[in-house]
Design goal:
Blueprint lengths: L2 E6 L3 H16 L3 E3 L7 E6 L4 H17 L4 E6 H5 L12 E3 L7 H11 L7 E5 L5 E3 L2 E3 L21 E8 L10 H5 L3 E2 L2 H13 L4 E6 L7 H18 L10 H8 L7 H11 L7 E4 L1 E2 L6 H8 L7 E4 L6 H7 L5 H14 L4 E8 L6 H14 L3 E6 L17 H24 L6 E11 L2 E7 L5 E5 H4 L5 E4 L3 E2 L7 E2 L1
Parallel strand pairs: 1-2, 1-3, 3-4, 4-5, 5-8, 9-11, 11-12, 13-14, 14-15, 15-16, 19-22
Antiparallel strand pairs: 6-7, 7-8, 9-10, 17-18, 17-20, 18-19, 21-22
Length: 492
């Protein structure tokens, strides 16, 4: 029995896909071991969202080869996809697999092991009939056009009560700083029947909270909507005698790109309504949203689904309109503020979390101060703060006014101070209030064994096992008090 070790880098989508790949190997008779152990095969699911992610991907590839020089080292995912031209020169990679091919990893690996192609002379020119860039020892799909959604199926996870469920892949937004559309390709949505089938299977295994995840879940259903629109338009054009059904003006083009409006959002809402009917699922938590999807109708529809958690991650990136414009974010601070107000109208004190990029090219001191004031005014529960990272091939990489690493670090610190203030203020509002909790794991806190879990609004809660009256995986906190040695969590 051959052993396989995995290391995951990056987002929740990568985590989901790594667990699926592990299960595919297990089903085919391989034994999964820890990454630090000596293994026959190492799989590194790479990330390319920042320069640091690129570097970590390379480091883990080299570490795997150092752990066992005779092992087959496999790099998969986003770094592979965006650095296809450089993969041949990467020391330590025996096999490279891009995105949208992870479901075939076992077959690809077994073919490689059978043929055992040497590293010398790995380059092959041209494309296969399937449109794949080919290297000996590499399978890297061409994602410049929208491929089909790659159906992956998760049957279990390391989590105890909460599980991630992937519903879409790809992104059409092309923010000026981001390489992900090049790494993941265009938007493609998973069919609802496959999502529901996986949800029922996971609920049957005892998972009680599902987290909907994807590269850009606000675009879920956009491709289905456009396909339907295309069919209707083709019929109308044929009836009008218009043979050039592809030229419909700028509005049509913008709609196809997914940057005009969110008329397809009803498909997302319908999916959530169906998931809420799955027996055994007690909570549905939503992944990262674009603020533009939050309309009165959409928020009202979500609020009517009682299993939806009052926790919303709305990507902001900057609290300054001029910076948002340079980022190609397609909304203003006023738009964002309106989206937050709508959520707070339909949900009681929801947790609003966000992402921020500090030190975007050309960001002046005044623009940075605008962001600080906006972030403080919104009152986020959590802000995930990142210094701007130049990505080769993106528009922002060529923009003038690149800030120094020192400037970016200082601006991150300014934002973190506001984050800490906002986070504490939000948590303090729940002191002494009842909070339903799903316990997820146990931890040692101040020498006591404690259950640890999350409330619907994603507050982390700890409770001594001795107070729980047994290993019941649900609980209600009636008296909560902050504990400084327990991070920013609450403990009763």
């Amino acid at each position: 029995m051959q052993t396989v070790a995995f290391h995951n880098l990056g987002c929740k989508v990568n985590s989901y896909e790594t667990e699926v790949m592990q299960q595919y190997f297990q089903k085919n008779g391989y034994s999964i071991v820890e990454f630090a152990q000596k293994a026959d095969i190492y799989v590194i699911n790479t990330c390319t969202v920042t320069n640091i992610a690129d570097r970590k991907s390379r480091q883990m590839i080299h570490k795997a080869k150092a752990l066992n020089p005779d092992a087959v080292v496999i790099a998969v995912g986003c770094y592979v996809q965006t650095h296809a031209a450089d993969i041949e020169g990467e020391d330590g990679i025996d096999l490279a697999i891009g995105n949208n091919k992870k479901g075939e990893i076992v077959a690809i690996v077994e073919q490689y092991l059978t043929e055992k192609k040497p590293r010398e002379g790995r380059r092959e020119q041209g494309k296969t009939a399937a449109g794949e860039k080919t290297l000996q020892g590499a399978t890297i799909p061409d994602l410049t056009d929208r491929p089909e959604y790659e159906e992956l199926n998760l049957s279990s996870t390391m989590e105890h009560t909460r599980v991630y469920l992937k519903i879409q892949d790809g992104c059409n937004q092309f923010c000026s700083y981001c390489a992900i559309p090049y790494a993941r390709g265009r938007v493609r949505s998973r069919k609802a029947e496959h999502i529901l089938e996986e949800a029922r299977r996971l609920a049957g295994k005892g998972y009680r909270e599902i987290v909907l995840t994807g590269i850009h879940i606000s675009s879920y259903g956009l491709d289905f909507y456009n396909e339907s629109y295309n069919r209707v338009f083709a019929k109308v054009s044929e009836a009008d005698g218009n043979t050039d059904a592809g030229t419909t003006g700028e509005d049509r083009k913008m709609e196809q790109m997914g940057v005009c409006d969110y008329r397809h959002s009803g498909l997302f809402l319908a999916l959530v309504e169906q998931l809420a009917q799955v027996e055994g699922i007690e909570r549905i938590r939503l992944g990262s949203f674009e603020p533009r999807i939050i309309t009165e109708e959409f928020a009202k529809g979500l609020a009517a689904i009682k299993k939806v958690c009052p926790h919303f991650h709305l990507s902001l990136q900057s609290g300054c309109d001029s910076v948002l414009s340079r980022m190609n974010r397609q909304y203003t601070c006023a738009d964002f503020q309106e989206s937050v107000a709508i959520l707070r109208k339909y949900f009681e004190d929801p947790a609003i979390t966000t992402d921020l990029i500090a030190g975007f090219p050309g960001e002046t001191k005044e623009e940075h101060e605008e962001t600080l004031a906006f972030v403080e005014g919104i009152g986020f529960y959590e802000t995930h703060i990142f210094p701007f990272s130049r990505r080769k091939g993106t528009a922002a990489d060529k923009m003038p006014g690149q800030l120094t690493e020192k400037q970016k670090k200082e601006r991150c610190e300014d934002l973190r101070r506001i984050h800490e203030k906002n986070r504490k203020a939000y948590m303090d509002r729940f002191l002494g209030k009842p909070l339903p909790v799903l316990w997820e794991t146990t931890k040692q806190i101040e020498g006591k064994e404690c259950f640890v879990g999350h409330s619907p609004n994603y507050l982390e809660i700890a409770l001594p096992v001795s107070k729980a009256g047994g290993e019941d995986l649900t609980g209600e906190i009636t008296e909560a008090a902050p504990r400084t040695n327990y991070g920013d969590g609450l403990m009763c």
